[in-house]
Amino acid sequence: MARRSYRPEQIIKKLREAEVLLSQGSTIGEAARKIGVTDMTYYRWRREYGGMRIE
Description:
This protein has 55 residues and is mostly helical. The protein is built from three helices and no strands.
């Protein structure tokens, strides 16, 4: 995958998309691929931004 930087707003949006996919029965690996990041990036983002909301 090409390296790309995301703004916090974009990260929170992608985490929300992943939550929807996970609630529909996708695995974390599948959800991460669908939002365009690796599993490790998903876990890191969830740890860093998981409790945040877009204002």
